Amino acid sequence: MTSVPVRLLLADDHPVVRAGLRAVLEGEPDFEVVAEAPTAERAVELAAELDVDVVLMDLQFGSGMGGSQATAVITARPGAPRVLVLTTYDTDVDILAAIEAGATGYLLKDTPPDELADAVRTAAAGKSALAPEIAQRLMDRVRRPAVMLSLREIEVLQLVAEGLSNQQISERLFLSQATVKSHLVHIYAKLGVDSRTAAVATATASGLIRR
Amino acid sequence: MTSVPVRLLLADDHPVVRAGLRAVLEGEPDFEVVAEAPTAERAVELAAELDVDVVLMDLQFGSGMGGSQATAVITARPGAPRVLVLTTYDTDVDILAAIEAGATGYLLKDTPPDELADAVRTAAAGKSALAPEIAQRLMDRVRRPAVMLSLREIEVLQLVAEGLSNQQISERLFLSQATVKSHLVHIYAKLGVDSRTAAVATATASGLIRR
DNA sequence: GGCCTTCTCCACCTTTCGATGGATGCGGCG
DNA sequence: CGCCGCATCCATCGAAAGGTGGAGAAGGCC
After folding, report:
1. Does the CB of A111 have a partner CB in chain B at under 8 Å?
2. What domains can you pick out in chain B, each with its CATH number?
3. Interface predicted TM-score (ipTM)
């Protein structure tokens, strides 16, 4: 169908992973890797400057902007490329944040090369490409909306789990402490607990947050 | 010096990472990648069958044997290859387990290709190759000989991690709240934190308590 | 247009937690 | 024996967290 190759941008902070993606994807005749970005910020710039069809985006970057933020910025622009998230983690926070941000697909890094190539073609065609594990998680989530925390609530809870105080969380998320407390009150109600440590314990047990 | 190339075995469950390592390392004229292993078990087999100088070993495998176990098995044999651990994570448990198991070096996956190549040569020569971050961690660890919490302190911290309040902990352990607080103060001092959630976060990260 | 949810923010008040600065008894070690 | 670390206990005070009861803006849905 398409005689012109699919133009790709690789965004990952690990040089080894970028080289691996390039090696795997350039083996396909209908792909062309036009650039690599070692940071999320650089990915945003390159996606704007270059004519790119699909961005392969990692979620974890060492510092600075995160992958889902970058995804949101990139997909906001009209005529934006598709963003295919490719990461190691598969927690609810990551998945929901990425999809919310406008990702076309979500793959795990242990995906075999041929499936990866298929997913890129699927994404280039504008269809969503989800790894089976991810699809399963979303199904579970829909089937049992028992612990339905909003995205923002999970975000707050994740920071609580990392040991931050309400003050620190408010600074990190550019909120007031009052708002953080509000979110926490809602979280406690939904989880049926009455303290931050208990919330972290139950949320960890149900796989809502990482670590 | 060495006219024969360094013979490498790549052990990682991510095809993309294996491809990346192969791409990066085969660019060096003095390296030869002789095999790839997608599981730790396969890495052990291949290390025994083939004549290998250095094994590049991931720590996280999806299922089955872990990377540090495989490292222990491989290095136990006389005339064994050097094992260079290459992983994303840098928690104390991982690092210590790998070094304990006989790893010659420990690198993080965001290492630049040239440093990676240097580290492989260093490992091939039998010298230890540690990423600066890792070296720093080990120094910290030596400087402050293990974060040794007393049994009682770990007991208290474990209950904190399960979400119990000081009151509940005191009842569970037949203590007064004052005593629980005392233990917590000591725990905070040893861990270098100043709140219960932060204590749980760091203790979990260093494997002091189970989750 | 209403209705609902989410996210944001505010004020007031109570409880819990953490910080400080003690004290006692016990057991190991030089 | 004295010293030290551990575990236990205590009181007090300020700071942080939690409880209650709001409110307004944005977006999806009927």
Report:
1. yes
2. 6-142 (3.40.50.2300), 151-205 (1.10.10.10)
3. 0.67
